[in-house]
Amino acid sequence: QVQLVESGGGLAQSGGSLRLSCAASGFTFNNYAMNWFRQAPGKEREFVAAISWSGGTTWYTDSVKGRFTISRDNAKNTAFLQMNSLKPEDTAVYYCAAGPSYTIVDYWGQGTQVTVSS
Description:
This protein is mainly β. The protein contains no helices and eleven strands.
C-alpha cells in the first residue's frame, strides 16, 4: 500500500522557518521524482518544488526561489522542504507527491497545514 505522510507543518511568524518531511512507503522511492504542491483557501493547488529521483535536479516555482529548498534522502525514503523567510502568502496546505517527473504525479500525501502570521 502506497503511503506518503507529511509532517512538520504548523504556525510560523513572517520571516520564520519550517521544515516539512514526507515519509514514503509502498513503492520504490528512488525511482520517483518528488514534488511539493500547496493549496491556499479558495485557490487552486499549485506546484511549489520538485526533485529528481537522484536528487541531482531541482525545480521551483518563482515565488519560492531563494527561500525554499527541496531535498531527499533515498536511504530513508524521505523528502524534505526547507522553508525559510516565510511570508503570509505561503499559508496553505502543503502536499507531497511522487511521480515520474516534476509536476507529473502518481501518488499524493494527505497534506500538512502551514500557517504564517504577519
